[in-house]
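Repro case for the chain-ordering regression, as requested:
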Amino acid sequence: MSSIIFEQVENLAVIKLNRPDKLNSFNREMALSMQSVLDKCESDASIRAILIVGEGRAFCAGQDLEEAISSDGPELRKIVEEHYNPIISRLRKIELPIVAAVNGVAAGAGANIALACDVVVATQAASFIQAFSGIGLIPDSGGTFTLPRLIGWQKASALMMLGDKIKADEAERMGMIYKVFENESFMEESMKVATRLSKMPTLGLGLTKRALNASLTNNLEEQLEIEEQLQTMAGQTFDYEEGVNSFLEKRRPNFKGE
Ligand code: T3D
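-- result from build under test --
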């Protein structure tokens, strides 16, 4: 059984983390498979959005701790350098909208992988735990970068040090995630969000992601400059023409992602 399941539904790639008996925690094989499947999504022009979800009752419990302490497993530095850093870099660099559908507990690297996605939705029963401090580690997978930007420095440092379990509703209230859906309709609602994104102007959304990424280090003048460049690019796409024409003709747009 593969630890990462890939399915394509029209223009949407669905990536399932599939080690349910280990709460979808990452071992080396799963981390490397995740990287290859993300590469496939990036290089296949028919894919216009990605949804990541966990199989079973958890989203992801972070690093597989049995592997982490095994004498023949990869050393800790390698786990961060070769497993998690390349996953987070891909999630941010791939110019497609990526939805994390958090179907249960998201702990450690599992939480920070979800939070690196562009749109994070969760089922009511989900929770987020910066579990690292409980085992003497520091938050990795971009957590020290992402979490303070999402919820502010004070809340982030407290959650990262205390390792509190944050329920989905609270995560939504504090701006950590986009939306919570009821348990019963969670998968259907998550698919609706991701499918909608997969039918939108893909290049424009990709450039929006590029602009947001750049804003993390730019000052206002630099950001205005990049908006000018990227808007010029967006204005040359088929989907821009289609969007304006469909508006003027009072009809639904038929975006192609071109
Ligand atoms: O080398 C390095 O470690 C560097 C990399 C760091 C990145 C990280 O992600 S560090 C953080 C690692 N993750 C954790 O510390 C979380 C560990 N898990 C938990 O705290 C709890 O399992 C949860 C809060 C996530 C869920 O609790 P609960 O009560 O719902 O489930 P459970 O009973 O604890 O777990 C169910 C099974 O999954 C259990 O196995 P069993 O007893 O049924 O055979 C448990 O051992 C297994 N499991 C859960 N998390 C992990 C795991 N097995 C391996 N690794 C895990 N992370």
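Ordering looks correct now. The beta strands are 4-9, 12-17, 49-54, 58-60, 98-102, 105-107, 119-123, 127-129, 165-167, 179-181.
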